[in-house]
C-alpha cells in the first residue's frame, strides 16, 4: 500500500525566503503524487501533481516540486515566500491501476514571518 | 458551477445521537470519498465509492456508514456519535483514480459532547 511522510509538522520562514516542504513516499512502483494547500477554514485545493510526464512539476502560486525516484521524494519549493502562502500543505499519493485510494500525509503548517 | 457541496457546515451532537452528513457533486465524477481531519494526523480516509452502488472501507471506518444510490450523492452516517468523532469532515470527488485530481467540499465541523 502507498503512503507518504511529511517531515516537519510546522515550518516557519521569513517573507522573501525559500520555502521547502518535504515529502517522502513509500511505494513499490512510482506512484502519482500530489500537493494540496488548505487555507484557514477552507477545503483543500490542488497545487500541483506528478504523473510521470516530467520530474519537475510547476504548480500554481509559484510553487514547484521535483520527483526524485532515487530518494523517493517529492519536495515542494517556492523561491520567495509571500505572506499569502501561510497555510497548511498536504502531500498525497495514489497508486497506478484499479480503484486506487488517495492517501494523505500528516500535513505541514507553513508560517510566514514579516 | 457548485463543485462539491457539503451540508451542514457546523454541527453539535450529543453522545449517542445519530446524524447524516450530506455530500453532493455536480461534476459527474465516479469516485467519491469521505475523510476526517484531526490535528497532526492529516486526512484519514473513512469510506469511499468507485461508482453508484459500490462502496468500500477506508482506514478509519468504524462508527460510520455510507451508501451511494446515485452518482451525485454520497452521504455519511454517524450511527451513534462518540466524542472521538469530533473532527472536521471532508467529502471529495474525482473523475477517476490514479492521476486524477480530487475536488474537495468546504468541510463539516462536527463536535460531539
TL;DR?
The complex is a heterodimer of chains A (114) and B (113). Chain A is mainly β and 114 residues long. Chain A has strands spanning 3-7, 10-14, 19-26, 32-38, 44-50, 56-58, 64-68, 73-78, 87-94, 102-104, 108-113.
Keywords:
heterodimer; A: 114 residues; mainly beta; six-stranded mixed sheet; five-stranded antiparallel sheet; 55% strand; B: 113 residues; seven-stranded mixed sheet; four-stranded antiparallel sheet; 51% strand; globular
Which term fits the overall shape of chain A?
A: globular
Most strands sheet of chain A? 6 strands, mixed
What structural class should be given to the helix and strand makeup of chain B? Answer: mainly beta
Distance N terminus to C terminus of chain B?
A: 36 Å
Give the low-confidence spans of chain A. none
Judged by helices, strands and strand pairing, the structural class of chain A is: mainly beta
Oligomer: heterodimer
Biggest interface found: A-B, 28 and 26 residues
Count of distinct strands of chain B:
11
The biggest beta sheet of chain B reads: 7 strands, mixed
Pattern of helices and strands of chain B: EEEEEEEEEEE
What share of the residues of chain B lie within helices? Answer: under 10%
How many runs of DSSP E, i.e. beta strands of chain A? 11
First and last CA, distance of chain A: 41 Å
Number of helices of chain B: 0
Question: Mind explaining what this structure looks like?
Answer:
The complex is a heterodimer of chains A (114) and B (113). Chain A is mainly beta and 114 residues long. Chain A contains no helices and eleven strands. In chain A, the strands form two sheets. In chain A, strands 2, 4, 5, 9, 10 and 11 form a six-stranded mixed sheet that branches. In chain A, a hairpin with a 5-residue loop joins strand 6 and strand 7. The model of chain A has no long low-confidence stretch (mean pLDDT 92). Chain B has strands spanning 4-7, 10-13, 19-25, 31-38, 42-51, 54-57, 64-66, 76-78, 87-94, 103-104, 108-112. Chain B has 113 residues and is mainly β. In chain B, strand 4 (31-38) and strand 5 (42-51) form a beta hairpin. Chain B is globular, with a radius of gyration of 13 Å. In chain B, the strands form two sheets. In chain B, strands 2, 4, 5, 6, 9, 10 and 11 form a seven-stranded mixed sheet that branches. A four-stranded antiparallel sheet of chain B has the order 1-3-8-7, with no helix packed on it. The A-B interface holds A 6, 9, 32, 34, 41-46, 49, 51, 90, 92, 94-107 and B 4, 31, 33, 35, 40-45, 48, 50, 56, 58, 90, 92, 94, 97-99, 101-102, 104-107.
Amino acid at each position: 500500500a502507498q503512503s507518504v511522510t511529511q517531515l516537519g509538522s510546522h515550518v516557519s520562514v521569513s517573507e522573501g525566503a525559500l520555502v521547502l516542504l518535504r515529502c517522502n513516499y513509500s511505494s513499490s512502483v512510482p506512484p502519482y503524487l500530489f500537493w494540496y494547500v488548505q487555507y484557514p477554514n477552507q477545503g483543500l485545493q490542488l497545487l500541483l501533481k506528478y504523473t510521470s510526464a516530467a520530474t519537475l512539476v510547476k504548480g500554481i502560486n509559484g510553487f514547484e516540486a521535483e520527483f526524485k525516484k532515487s530518494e523517493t521524494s517529492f519536495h515542494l519549493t517556492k523561491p520567495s515566500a509571500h505572506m499569502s502562502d501561510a497555510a497548511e500543505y498536504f502531500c498525497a499519493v495514489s497508486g497506478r491501476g484499479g480503484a486506487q485510494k488517495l492517501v494523505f500525509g500528516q500535513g505541514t503548517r507553513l508560517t510566514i514571518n514579516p | 458551477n457548485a463543485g462539491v457541496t457539503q451540508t451542514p457546515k457546523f454541527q453539535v451532537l450529543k453522545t449517542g445521537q445519530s446524524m447524516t452528513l450530506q455530500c453532493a457533486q455536480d461534476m459527474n465524477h465516479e469516485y467519491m470519498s469521505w475523510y476526517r481531519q484531526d490535528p497532526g494526523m492529516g486526512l484519514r480516509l473513512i469510506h469511499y465509492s468507485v461508482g453508484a452502488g459500490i462502496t468500500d472501507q477506508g482506514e478509519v471506518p468504524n462508527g460510520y456508514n455510507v451508501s451511494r444510490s446515485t452518482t451525485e450523492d454520497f452521504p455519511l452516517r454517524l450511527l451513534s456519535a462518540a466524542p472521538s468523532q469530533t473532527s472536521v469532515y471532508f467529502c471529495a470527488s474525482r473523475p477517476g483514480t490514479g492521476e486524477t485530481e480530487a475536488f474537495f467540499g468546504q468541510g463539516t465541523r462536527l463536535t460531539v459532547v
